[in-house]
Amino acid sequence: MLATPRQLLDRFHQAMLDFSPDSLADLFADEATYEFVFWTPHRGPSQRYDGREEIRAGFRAAWGSVSAPPLTGFRGMCVHETADAEVVISEGEMDGVNHATGQPFSSRFVLVLRARDGRIVHLRDYSDVLRTAAGLGRLSQLFELVRGESAP
């Protein structure tokens, strides 16, 4: 039996907690798109990953330099079923810890997930990148990247 959009969403959240680029990417169809709505310069100009293998490579690169997973859980989760049977919307907060300082942080998110034939075909990620960067102690690094991208 093929996974439903809701089941895929649950598996997506678990892959995030497991900090596993492979488990995450394996949820997606070959030609899927993972779209980041809020701009961050380290992802380059497209702000999206096209195809399962680009999703895998993108998350491997993003998570590869991290010594320990910062994500510790989700809370305040609300999942909205939609009139479109392929689409679910998830909103809530993710909790994390800055391992360098031991300080906890949280960040809000909204995910719009479209699934077909038991795989995610499109995911639109509205995560609060500023709050996450602040929690990880990387806000100044993010601002330097922004300044570099917008320089004449």
From TrEMBL:
Transmembrane portions of the chain: none
Superkingdom per UniProt: Bacteria
Pfam families the UniProt entry points to: SnoaL_2
SUPFAM superfamilies named in the record: NTF2-like
Domain SnoaL-like: 10-122
Record protein name field: Nuclear transport factor 2 family protein
